[in-house]
Every structure is written in structure tokens, then in C-alpha cells.
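Response to reviewer comment R2.3. The reviewers asked that we include at least one raw input/output pair. We reproduce the pair for CDR ABC transporter here without editing.
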Amino acid sequence: MGGAKIYNMYQNIPRCNHRFSTALAWDKSTHGLDASTAIDFAKSLRILTNTYKTTTFLPLYKLSENIYKQFDKTLVIDNGRQVFFGPTSEARSYYEALGFREKPRRTTLGCLTRCTNTFEREFKYGGSVDDVPSVPQTLVEAFDKSVLSETLDQGIKSCSAQIQKEKKIYDDFEIANKKAKRKFTSDPSVYSISFHLQTWALMQRQFLLKWQGRFDHILDYLCWYCRRGRGRNMAC
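Raw output as returned:
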């Protein structure tokens, strides 16, 4: 089962490359993988992201520090609320500054998950629930008031302004995408060819597969004829 899962994972990477996706989301991608394979997979995603200039979302839980360092940003969600979004290198120090106890021997992911867990979180000496943000609402309020939130807002505004300046590039891309679609393909469709052309391509593929194995099929029909046909007494 583990080998099949690894094979499927590495098969999905070139498939994503072929589709030229601008954003990729992986769910439970490292579940069931051993430590070394999980690191190799994370590094593969890092290379994919750098090469194709894409955005990759990957949910992680209690993984090694080496995998965590492959990412640029960290998003922490507590009961459906975004309580942190910023550089991976600043996530640990952010929560320590809020009043959570330092855990230098734990991984960053372990510390982040403990900070949102009612039964596992630990405050600094003298801290308590009353003076340290510990519920989703207070954690959201603390993040909204932080420097990281201001930096995030500035980055969004800067990106929006840059998109407006390069609008012609995006318009040209949209036109090229429409031209790449075959006739009778609707504009909202994510596919470049229509349904009937996809069906025809699958039929051709299936025919070629059957034709390549024609020798085996002929032998199967001959054996079936020997057993079922007029020559039942013949040795086949």
C-alpha cells in the first residue's frame, strides 16, 4: 500500500506540471509516507513551485522541521478562524511574544498546534488565559493588531496595484487561452477541447491499446474457440 501511495504521489507531480496550474492544493499528501520520502516529496514541491512560479498549499501536522523549512508562509487556523499568516521563520517567535512558553526542543509545527490546543498549550511563567490570547476570537484580534497583519495588507495592496499595471499581460493570456480551445468548447470550460473530442480521443487510445495487444487477443479467441466451438475434443 505504501509503495502504491508513493507511486501515485510522484505521478501527480508531472500531471500538475502539464496542466500549468497557478495554484496547487494538496490534501493529506504526506499521510502514510515515511520520514525520508516525505522530505523528498516536500522538496519536489519546492522545486515545482520555484520552477513554474506557482502557489502551493499543503496542510501539515506534526512533521519534521526540514519539511517545514521548505515553505515560505505559514497559515494557522483555529476553529475555522485565521489566527496567523506570515513567514515560516517568524511563526514561533510570534506566539512566544504573545505569552506562550518557549519549547526549543519541539518542532515549529508542534509548537503551533499546541498553541491552539486547549489541553496542550502552556503559558509563560505568570501567564494565564486572562492575559494571553488563547481562544480563536482573541487570537484573531491579536493578529489583526500585529505588524505581520499590516505587512500582509500592504503586500495585498501592492500585488493589486502591480496587477493593474500589468493588466495587458493578463488580457493577452486570456486571449491566448481562448485561442487554445478547440471549436465548440465553451468559454467557462477548463478543458481545451469539447466533450465529444475527448470521447473520440479516448476511443482512439483504447483502440491503439487493443491493437498493440492483438496477438494476445487472437490467442484468447482461438483458445475460446477450441474449448467452446466445434473442436471441443481437440487439445488446445
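The chain has a mean pLDDT of 81. The chain has two domains: 5-157, 185-235. Further pairs are available on request from the corresponding author.
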